[in-house]
């Protein structure tokens, strides 16, 4: 299954090979064209033992992220196996697979287990559960073959796994809970907790909610209230309705929590923080805890000083009652309002609701039955040219997407380096979410956030760059990009490792192309973003020698050699392009680069984008 979200691998919790892609990538199979991917290797993660106490499925992936780093899973499918798998709930397996995106994995998956069948039955899919169980027992499908070998194996003993807290600013900075207080002091992280947030697509299952609610019930019995804002984001209408029906919403609200709409919400910056000064343009340093999957700088609230630490819902919930980042609920005590000493007990929960799930507002919609193809599109849909698309000329949220220009010529000449980026540059850095999401249908307006989170490698300034002629005072990156677009100056971006990490946010490539970007040159790419760039006619290149990153600077002039050969050969899945770099002092250098273009991708490049017709 392909999904236009980087966390599509969530479905690996049900044994699906589910891969996240960009929107234009999903168009290929939807229109009957092949979808291509460099064949991944297989990373096996052997699970033994069983979780207990405060340890949760989230801690499996938090620990693994620390072992692999944010790019250690690139080029791999992660397959979980071993006796420990049978001890996990279906939604617990989904949580682990969901966050596999944070290590760069193509996808992650588990074998089909009894927990998988139970979940399908509970979600009104008993025939699917029966068919899958039969396939498993009769053919061995939906599980690893006997004697299967892996390109690499990592072992995790669930019985010895302790809770982890990952962050700040990257999901792979992993710290066991027992060492976290020490790390807070060592790194001078804020000792005060400002907000606790649970939910999101990673951790909003019924099991997650019941374990967090158990902590809240213990606090209520002790007379405690949350000391900081405590926000709960259900991951679906089904979860929202079920926790409301079963009284969990009241449990959270009774301790001072707020249950939000079932949406991405604070995970991508869609919330209003009341504890910070919204009018301040200065970075406001603070620490938050969340059960989300990403914690890049400024992602959650637009404030670069917010340190988001990722952990489980139950640990987040417990720590809101202390208001301290130094609190360890597995051994520390809280003084209650009556003066008593209180210590939390390990949380307990239910993997599935005993009364079944409540479909909530979905009940008003007609349920599809097996064999009903009324919602199935034609296998070979044909365009209807007479269809009229009406967009208000005064709209600032919708705009007709004009085709990008074809590549005409043999090589690029006189490109300029718009910005040389230092350190992490995720799709949140390239195209911020939050308030900007309202402009997703208006490329011109949303391009005003292009690369605003990027750090200038030469000045250490965020979102500040300088022109090579005319007004050379510092301006924002999108402002300079727009200035160069107006004078016909095409450009490139230079960056470091894992460029485009994070969301499958296609605007991160569309905006660069719209403003005149033609090449992105980096040490390495995140998979989805590299393909998204290709889809929009931007040429992704990597350094043959990573040290060459140090010899190219902002505003350097760049000419290419090798693009003509790439086009004539049809890409062949890879080759070299040489960049002739002329510095501001007139010195000329050559940088060898690699491309990974296939025949189809070369065609997209020549046409101007994958959406343009062949001419």
Per-chain topology:
Elements: E1 2-3, E2 19-20, H1 23-30, E3 41-48, H2 57-68, E4 76-81, H3 90-98, E5 107-109, H4 114-122, H5 126-139, E6 152-157, E7 164-166, E8 174-176, H6 177-186, E9 193-199, H7 206-221, E10 230-233, H8 237-245, H9 248-254, E11 257-259, E12 286-290, E13 306-310, H10 313-320, E14 334-335, E15 341-342, E16 415-422, H11 427-430, H12 443-446, E17 455-456, H13 477-486, E18 491-494, H14 507-514, E19 517-522, H15 527-535, E20 539-543, E21 557-561, H16 563-569, E22 575-582, E23 588-595, H17 599-607
Parallel strand pairs: 1-2, 3-4, 3-6, 4-5, 9-10, 9-12, 10-11, 12-13, 16-18, 18-19, 19-20
Antiparallel strand pairs: 7-8, 14-15, 16-17, 16-21, 20-23, 21-22, 22-23
Helix pairs in contact: 2-3, 4-5, 7-9, 7-10, 14-15
Describe this structure in words.
It contains 17 helices and 23 strands. The protein has 615 residues and is an alpha/beta fold. The protein folds into three domains: 2-160, Aconitase, Domain 2 (3-Layer(aba) Sandwich), CATH 3.40.1060.10; 164-269 and 283-342, Aconitase, domain 3 (2-Layer Sandwich); 415-607, Aconitase, domain 4. Strands 16-18-19-20-23-22-21 form a seven-stranded mixed beta barrel, surrounded by four helices. The longest helix is centred in the middle third of the chain and has 16 residues, at 206-221. The protein is globular, with a radius of gyration of 25 Å.
């Amino acid at each position: 299954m392909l999904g236009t979200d980087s966390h599509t691998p969530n479905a690996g919790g049900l044994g699906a090979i589910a891969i996240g892609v960009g929107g234009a990538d999903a168009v290929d199979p939807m229109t009957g064209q092949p979808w291509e991917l460099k064949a991944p290797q297989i990373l096996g993660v052997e699970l033994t033992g069983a979780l207990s106490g405060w340890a949760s499925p989230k801690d499996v992936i938090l620990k693994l992220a620390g072992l692999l780093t944010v790019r250690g899973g690139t080029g791999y499918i992660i397959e979980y196996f071993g006796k420990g798998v049978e001890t996990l709930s279906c939604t617990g397996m989904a949580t682990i697979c969901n966050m596999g995106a944070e290590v760069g994995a193509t996808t992650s998956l588990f074998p089909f287990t009894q927990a998988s069948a139970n979940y399908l039955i509970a979600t009104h899919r008993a025939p699917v559960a029966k068919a899958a169980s039969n396939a498993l027992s009769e053919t061995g499908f939906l599980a690893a073959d006997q004697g299967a070998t892996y390109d690499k194996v990592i072992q995790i003993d669930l019985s010895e796994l302790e809770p982890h807290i990952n962050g700040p600013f990257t999901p792979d900075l992993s710290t066991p809970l027992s060492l976290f207080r020490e790390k807070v002091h060592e790194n001078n992280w804020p000792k005060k907790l400002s907000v606790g947030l649970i939910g999101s697509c990673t951790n909003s299952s019924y099991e997650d909610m019941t374990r967090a609610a158990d902590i809240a019930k213990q606090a209520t019995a002790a007379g405690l209230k949350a000391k900081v804002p405590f926000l709960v984001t259900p991951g679906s209408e089904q979860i929202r309705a079920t926790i409301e029906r079963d009284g969990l919403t009241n449990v959270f609200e009774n301790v001072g929590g707020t249950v939000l709409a079932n949406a991405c919400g604070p995970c991508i910056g869609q919330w209003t923080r009341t504890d910070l000064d919204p009018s301040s343009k200065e970075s406001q340093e603070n620490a938050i805890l969340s059960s989300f999957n990403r914690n890049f700088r400024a992602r959650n609230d637009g404030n670069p000083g917010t340190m988001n630490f990722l952990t489980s819902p139950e640990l987040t919930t417990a720590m809101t009652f202390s208001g301290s980042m130094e609190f360890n609920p597995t051994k520390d005590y809280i003084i209650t309002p009556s003066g008593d000493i209180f210590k939390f007990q390990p949380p307990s929960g239910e993997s599935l609701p005993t009364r079944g799930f409540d479909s909530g507002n979905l009940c008003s919609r007609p349920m599809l039955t097996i064999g009903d193809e009324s919602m199935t599109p034609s296998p070979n849909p044909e365009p209807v040219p007479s269809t009229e698309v009406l967009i208000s000329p005064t709209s600032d949220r919708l705009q007709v997407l004009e085709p990008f220009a074809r590549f005409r010529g043999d090589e690029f000449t006189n490109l300029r380096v718009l910005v040389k980026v230092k350190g992490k540059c995720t799709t949140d850095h390239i195209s911020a979410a939050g308030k900007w999401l309202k402009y997703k249908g208006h490329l011109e307006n949303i391009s005003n956030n292009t690369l605003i989170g990027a750090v200038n490698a030469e000045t250490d300034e965020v979102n500040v760059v300088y022109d090579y002629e005319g007004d050379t005072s510092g301006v924002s990156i999108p402002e300079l990009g727009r200035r160069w677009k107006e004078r016909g100056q095409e450009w490139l971006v230079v960056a470091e490792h894992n460029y485009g990490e994070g969301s499958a946010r296609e605007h991160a490539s569309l905006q660069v192309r719209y403003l005149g970007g033609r090449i992105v040159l980096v040490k390495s790419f995140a998979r989805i973003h590299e393909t998204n760039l290709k889809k929009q006619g931007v040429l992704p290149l990597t350094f043959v020698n990573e040290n060459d990153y140090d010899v190219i600077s902002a505003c350097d002039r760049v000419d290419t050699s090798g693009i003509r050969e790439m086009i004539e050969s049809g890409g062949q899945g890879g080759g070299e392009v040489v960049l002739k770099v002329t510095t501001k002092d007139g010195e000329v250098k050559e940088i060898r680069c690699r491309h990974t273009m296939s025949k189809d991708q070369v065609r997209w490049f020549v046409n101007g984008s994958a959406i343009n017709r062949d001419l």
